[in-house]
Write a structure and sequence with these properties.
seven-stranded mixed sheet; globular; about 325 residues; alpha/beta
Length: about 325
């Protein structure tokens, strides 16, 4: 009887897990199709990477780019995590050319940001696009545009040298304008969300009004009807937010910002926004800053990162160079 009871419990658990997995797969498929639909409607669709290295976000991104309808709709993927100086290497790599790992790593290791993109999720992203392209005709292959300025670290010895490459948003905007908009192509843009907001929460502050415009602000001002962006960093620890999410109990899913139109932007964020001047960012309504919310998972899962492999610190030359860049 005891064995029979254990067997029944096991079978019941397997059935529930199977049902949950089916529901999760259906939800994933629905969310992916929602994003692809936005890509059909808008030439420029941007997704907030949220927390860099996020396991949840990159699992979704992998599934999105592998969906057969994605490559039928989108020609370019513009990424923050690649140095434009190595665009030729990336072009060759995703088109199937044999590129040594030592050369490929330059794309994400040599950006203006130090040690941010060494998590394996970024290398895996490039590998996934390469694999997708293998099954596509030459004219249908997806192109990855590396949108970080072409910094040459061998010539950077002072903070002033680095600052000359620091206007990353302007450079990314110019890349998109030249390689996507002027050619009538469609692009998925993957950047940290603060780069993508239609209104910069920093530029709303009177004391910081001289800050350069962000990528999202530039695209909104120059191409307002062509640009659509989704925020991912949804604060599911806020009871006001969780109450609204009862209307969308499953994730991943794409939610209209109008669902949160009674809330200020800082209420949905998982971090504290600045509030220091006469027009603080926390007074801004959600719908004026973002177009949609990609609800991937609850916050505690969303912030789970895929760590950097410790082996890279055994690469003596790279480790010494990292220390030099930090200094």
């Amino acid at each position: 009887m005891k064995c029979l009871f254990i067997l029944l419990i096991t079978l019941f658990s397997v059935q529930l897990n199977g049902q949950q997995q089916t529901k999760d797969n259906q939800s994933m498929e629905k969310a992916i199709l929602q994003i692809i639909e936005k890509c059909q409607q808008y030439p420029l669709v941007a997704l907030d990477e949220g927390h860099h290295n996020s396991r949840v976000f990159h699992e979704f991104l992998q599934a999105l780019v592998q969906h057969k309808k994605f490559s039928q709709t989108v020609q370019d993927i513009v990424v923050e995590f690649g140095n434009a100086r190595y665009q030729h290497i990336m072009d060759d790599y995703i088109n199937g050319e044999p590129i040594p790992d030592s050369m490929l790593r330059l794309c994400w290791r040599e950006t203006t940001q130090v040690l941010v993109w060494d998590s394996p999720v970024y290398e895996q992203f490039f590998k996934t696009v390469r694999a997708v392209n293998k099954s596509l005709d030459k004219k249908k292959k997806i192109r990855i545009l590396l949108a970080d300025p072409p910094i040459d670290w061998s010539k950077v010895n002072t903070i002033e040298d680095w600052i000359s490459f620091a206007n990353r948003d302007e450079f990314a905007f110019n890349i998109i304008e030249k390689e996507v908009i002027s050619k009538g192509r469609k692009a998925l843009i993957i950047f940290g969300g603060l780069h993508l907001l239609r209104k910069s929460i920093h530029n709303m502050q009177a004391l910081q009004s001289q800050q350069p415009k962000t990528l999202g602000e530039r695209l909104t001002q120059q191409y307002p009807r062509s640009y659509w962006m989704a925020w991912t960093r949804l604060n599911t620890t806020n009871p006001v937010v969780t109450e609204l999410l009862k209307a969308a109990p499953y994730y991943p899913t794409l939610l209209s910002s109008n669902l949160f139109n009674e809330l200020s932007f800082d209420q949905i964020c998982d971090f504290k926004l600045p509030s220091i001047e006469s027009k603080p960012a926390h007074q801004e309504n959600v719908t004026t800053i973002i177009d949609g919310i990609l609800y991937l998972e609850e916050l505690n899962a969303l912030i789970e990162s895929v760590p950097i492999h410790q082996e890279i610190f055994k690469e003596t030359n790279y480790f010494i160079e990292l220390v030099r860049r930090c200094k």
